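step=encode ok
step=design start
structure_in=
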C-alpha cells in the first residue's frame, strides 16, 4: 500500500481511535511530545466522520471498539483517500496474539499490527517511516501468551510478576512531560477501580460479555502504566471467562483482583513519591 507519511514527524497529523480514555490520553501525550498534531475518536463511527473531514498522515486504531471492531472500521476507512490519491496508513493496536489476526488485518487493509501498550519508540519508528514490517508467523510483532488458561487458584505465574515494571515506568517518566504524566496517572487511579467494579457487577449478573469487556479495558490500562502483576491477573481472568473456565457463582476472581488492585495502586503512589522527591 502507498503511504502519505513523510520523515518530518512534527508536521504529521495523527488520528487516534481508542475507547479507553487512559490509553487514548497516553498515546496523545506521546504523539504531542513528538511534535505531532493529534485528533482522537472513541469509536469507529466517530472516527469515520473525522477521517472524512480532515487529512491525516497516520491512523492508530484499537481493535476492540464499542460499536464496530477495528477490522470493520479499517475496511470502511480504506474507502477514503487523501487529496493526492494516497491511502492513509492504518495500524491496529492490540494486546491479543491469535495467529488469525494477521490474515484478518490483511483482509481489512491494515498496514500492520502494533503491540499494546504502544511505546514512544514504536511511534517514532512509525512516524519516521522506519517501522519494520514483521513477517507473518514471527513472534516479534505480537506479545506471546500461553495457550492454556491460567487458573486463578494457581498464583505462581502472576506472583512472579513485579507489581510495577520499573523499566517501563522509567521509560514513560522519561518520555512524558510532568503534567502529562500526572494527568495520565490521575486518570488511571480514577478509572481502574471503576473498571473492576463494573466487571464484578457484571459477573454477579452472569453477564460474561460485559465483564470481559471491562476486564479488557482494565488490563490495557494497567499495562499502559506498567502495573505488570495487575495486568497479568486481569488478563488471566479475562481469558478464563472467555474460555468458560470460570463459574462466576463458584469461582469469583474479584477478591483476588481487588487485593492486587490495592497493592498496585500503593506501588504506583510510592513510585510517584520517589519520582517527585528525586526531581
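sequence_out=
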Amino acid at each position: 500500500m502507498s503511504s502519505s507519511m513523510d520523515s518530518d514527524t512534527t508536521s504529521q497529523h495523527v488520528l487516534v481511535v481508542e475507547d479507553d480514555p487512559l490509553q487514548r490520553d497516553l498515546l496523545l501525550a506521546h504523539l504531542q511530545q513528538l511534535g505531532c498534531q493529534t485528533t482522537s475518536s472513541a469509536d469507529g463511527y466517530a472516527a469515520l466522520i473525522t477521517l472524512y473531514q480532515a487529512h491525516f498522515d497516520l491512523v492508530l486504531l484499537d481493535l476492540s471498539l464499542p460499536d464496530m471492531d477495528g477490522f470493520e472500521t479499517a475496511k470502511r476507512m480504506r474507502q477514503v483517500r487523501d487529496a493526492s490519491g494516497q491511502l492513509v496508513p492504518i495500524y491496529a493496536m492490540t494486546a491479543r496474539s491469535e495467529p488469525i489476526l494477521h490474515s484478518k488485518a490483511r483482509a481489512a487493509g491494515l498496514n500492520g499490527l502494533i503491540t499494546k501498550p504502544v511505546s514512544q519508540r514504536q511511534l517514532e519508528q512509525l512516524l519516521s517511516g522506519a517501522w519494520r514490517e514483521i513477517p507473518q508467523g514471527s513472534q516479534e510483532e505480537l506479545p506471546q501468551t500461553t495457550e492454556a488458561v491460567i487458573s486463578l487458584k494457581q498464583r505462581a505465574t502472576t506472583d512472579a510478576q513485579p507489581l510495577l515494571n520499573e523499566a517501563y515506568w522509567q521509560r514513560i517518566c522519561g518520555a512524558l512531560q510532568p503534567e502529562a504524566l500526572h494527568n495520565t496517572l490521575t486518570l488511571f487511579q480514577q478509572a481502574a477501580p471503576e473498571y473492576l467494579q463494573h466487571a464484578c457487577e457484571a459477573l454477579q449478573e452472569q453477564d460474561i460479555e460485559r465483564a470481559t469487556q471491562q476486564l479488557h479495558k482494565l488490563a490495557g490500562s494497567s499495562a499502559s502504566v506498567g502495573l505488570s502483576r495487575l495486568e497479568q491477573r486481569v488478563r488471566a481472568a479475562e481469558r478464563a471467562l472467555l474460555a468458560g473456565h470460570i463459574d462466576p457463582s463458584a469461582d469469583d476472581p474479584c477478591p483476588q483482583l481487588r487485593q492486587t488492585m490495592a497493592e498496585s495502586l500503593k506501588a504506583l503512589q510510592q513510585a510517584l513519591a520517589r519520582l517527585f522527591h528525586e526531581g
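step=design ok
step=annotate ok -> The radius of gyration is 19 Å.
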